[in-house]
UniProtKB/TrEMBL annotation:
InterPro entries: AhpC/TSA, DUF2092, Thioredoxin-like_sf, Thioredoxin_domain, Thioredoxin_ResA/DsbE_sf
Chain's gene name: resA_1
CDD domains: TlpA_like_family
Superkingdom of origin organism: Bacteria
GO molecular function: antioxidant activity; oxidoreductase activity
Name of the protein: Thiol-disulfide oxidoreductase ResA
Alphabetized Gene3D superfamilies for the sequence: Glutaredoxin
Thioredoxin domain residues: 295-433
Length: 457
């Protein structure tokens, strides 16, 4: 399927693995030798930090290490820059919660992928999609989840986990194997919040900038900016062209280490019909060999309510009895943008026959989409799916994904990827010829899918 924009599922996943493998062993340390993180102190550090740095960093480190619970929402932005110009920018959101000892959940929401890890202290499960999961051999401690989690969660998850997981020791991540740490300034963060700006240089030359609220009694992380370019450049596994840089930014939208969390937050309950895979490798192998069957084919289309890009209310049931084309996209998905003009051109030809096109932007905020439409001049029926809930309902684990719903409300066809203008136009035209006269598409008729081995098998 050409043009399919997978995150974690195909080559990008293995790039993530490559990046993680490049981190020197001295930076990633397990907790087997330390059943309980001990009280951090200056003598534990691999470098001699100044009193100013200690006073700025230690309150945050101690509050996380001593916490019984934690919960945070963190926005992740990754920028690939070539000669000063951003050539690719991606946005995702982490939702992280932990209950010391041993319970945690990490949910990474990206425009094209949803990944969630659950650990209830006894077993650990990774859900790679709403309908796909696998069980890890053993539950791990919170500290080991921070430094050595084997589930792909973005390009460099350790720092954000170290700042959001109750009971871990952030000094292992932020102080061990460092060349230097210094206080840059104490300017208000975004001009409003009293803050301390710290700058660190790791042994592998990766640099980070951390902004912490200037509140000794209740310190909180505000932003973490990591420049991973030196680590990539030093490796013989990744070619880094001259003028290229790669940065990861974490913005802490909500963060707390107080209160209580219910245990069911850390317990995995598979969705009806979900497939259990034997391992992460088995999951990747199976989806790589998938023949394109979609579990919604022949099923009633998921109902949803949302708002348009100009903030008008929308309910799918208002289109009852009409043929609906649902197209999931993001502003950063090149394959999505390449296919949109063809989808619009074909559906416009059938508008007098009751065909409606719904372009659903998933995983991005309203302002981002409005700015994009203003810059590009695109005019379509744009619906918002900021939290990705509509995409989850349609099992849109990869985009572009275009779903055709018949007059009877059943899902008749699902297009994955972008095979080119000519192929897309022909297929869509053929399908709408059938659906507009009340016909059924063969692919939309219920059929048995070939799935990976599951527990009940």
């Amino acid at each position: 399927m050409s043009g399919l924009n997978f995150m974690h599922r195909t080559t990008t996943t293995f790039l993530y693995f490559a990046i993680l493998l490049l981190i020197p062993a001295g930076v990633v340390q397990g907790d087997e030798a330390k059943p309980k993180p001990k009280k951090s102190s200056e003598k534990d550090f691999s470098i001699q930090i100044t009193e100013e740095v200690r006073a700025a960093l230690m309150p945050l480190i101690d509050s996380i290490r001593d916490a019984k619970v934690s919960r945070a929402t963190v926005r992740m932005l990754t920028d690939s820059v070539m000669s000063g110009e951003v050539v690719e920018s991606r946005e995702a959101t982490f939702q992280i919660a932990a209950k010391n000892p041993g319970k945690f959940t990490v949910y990474l929401k990206e425009p094209e992928q949803r990944t969630r890890v659950y650990c209830d202290g006894k077993q650990m499960v990774a859900a790679m999609a709403p309908d796909a999961f696998f069980r890890l051999p053993n539950a791990v401690s919170i500290q080991k989840a921070v430094t050595a989690l084997t589930v792909p969660l973005g390009p460099y998850p350790e720092p954000v986990l170290a700042l959001t997981m109750a009971g871990c020791d952030p000094s292992i991540t932020f102080v061990a194997a460092m060349k230097s740490i210094e206080v840059v300034d104490r300017k208000p963060f975004k001009g409003k919040i009293p803050a301390i700006h710290l700058h660190g240089v790791q042994a592998d030359a990766v640099t980070w900038d951390l902004w912490v609220s200037d509140d000794e009694k209740d310190p909180q992380p505000l932003r973490l900016l990591i420049d991973m370019t030196p680590m990539l450049a030093a490796s013989d596994q990744v070619h880094v062209p001259a003028g290229f840089s790669y940065q990861v930014r974490y913005d802490f939208l909500t963060w707390r280490v107080k209160g209580d969390l219910k245990d069911n937050l850390f317990t995995f309950k598979p969705a009806k019909g979900a497939t259990e895979y034997e391992s992460l490798e088995d999951y990747f192998q199976q989806i790589a060999g998938s023949k394109g069957y979609h579990p919604l084919l022949g099923q009633p289309a998921p109902r949803f309510k949302t708002q348009t890009v100009d903030q008008r209310k929308f309910d799918l049931k208002s289109l009852k009895g009409r043929v609906v084309v649902v197209d999931f996209w993001t502003t950063t998905c090149k394959a999505c943008l390449a296919g949109m003009p063809t989808v619009k051109k074909v559906t416009d030809r059938y508008s007098k026959k009751g065909v409606v096109l719904l372009e659903i932007n998933t995983g991005q905020d309203l302002e981002t989409v409005q700015d994009f439409l203003k810059d590009t001049g695109i005019e379509m029926n744009i619906l918002m799916d900021e939290e990705g809930k509509i995409a989850d309902g349609f099992i849109a684990d990869a985009i572009p994904q275009t779903v055709l719903i018949g007059k009877d409300g059943l899902v008749e066809s699902v297009h994955l990827g972008f095979a080119g203008e000519e192929a897309l136009e022909k297929r869509l035209t053929d399908e709408l010829d059938v659906l507009t006269v009340g016909g059924r598409i063969a692919s939309g008729k219920p059929a048995k899918a070939t799935k990976s081995k599951s527990k009940k098998d």
